[in-house]
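Run log, item B.
One chain of 361 residues. Sequence copied directly from the ordering sheet:
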Amino acid sequence: MIGPIGNKFAPIGDPGRQIYEDSLQVFEEVIQAACQKVGIDPVRADQIAVAGEITEQVFRHLLEDDVVIADVSNGNPNVMYELGLRHTTGRLTIQIGEFGQLPFDITAIRTIQFSRSPRGLIDARNELERALQAGLLDGQDPLTATRVWRDVQSGKPEVELSPPDLSDATESEDDAPGLLEMMTEVEDGLQSMVDDANTITEAIEKIGMVTELSGAEMEKVNQSGAPNSSRLALVAKYAANIKDPVEKLEEASTSFAAHMSSINDGVKALLQIIQTADPDDRPEGWSEFLDQLISMAESSREGMEGLNSFGTAAEGMGSLSRQLRGPGKKINGAVANMRKAIADIDAWERTAQSIRKATEA
């Protein structure tokens, strides 16, 4: 297991001590607990019992171990370096990280996200256990780093890139949007994303209410000792009741991601303009624009935390009944759509906060 180590000898309240305690909590309550369920004994770098050079021992584990679990919370530089080395091996590697603390450049790789709460850590443990079981059984698809590394080792020729065709450059510049067009497009896109986010929230609340009612009904059936046919009937009823909100959730998340993709370049361009211009020369409404991005990032993280809990539950739906496999896949699809979109929104927020701090200074 690779992750932040911190300093266990630092005084209480010291950042190094807090990193150590947070990392140890994740190791003990999530990673160690999940690994023990599948017969694996996880080892942290600071717990290697064999004498020798720590760096060499860590590198050998990265190269030779069948499984590596990486806690990527806060993007610790050592962890990211070790994770990059591990990716070149093609062996099973599972990433976990605290929600809202993921480095933006690895969010394209599936990462088990958790909230640092009793329920959040339990959900992460269960999700990690399922990921371990699936990975040990089926392995994992090779990542880009693995494929490129293998191509280089095998002597596969690199792809030759043709020089860009600049013949239409002048015409393209004439058609390029100006600042007003760019701001209007971004404003419209952000408003559409707000509408999609509201729809997602409503769908999650509806699914939550139906789930709570269905759980109460199932509890009564369990206590009465009724046959499994009664439970199956309740499952069928539950599947029918969540059909509409699950479809709305899927549609809204797809729309949210699409709007995100369509304005991403425009938002980054506007942020660059604001960042490089003198305060007096910045476009009108720039401060409100930064506030809007920061607010959207905060609300998106809150919504994603609730959606993550549904995603964790959805992964076990198919094993309960085939009637729940369709809704489960749609919920997982919604989670994937939102994770990718929110990674970009987090990047917006970081730039916006950086501009804010520079302006205030």
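Observations after the first pass:
- The two ends are 40 Å apart (CA to CA).
- The longest helix spans residues 228-276.
Flagged for discussion on Thursday.
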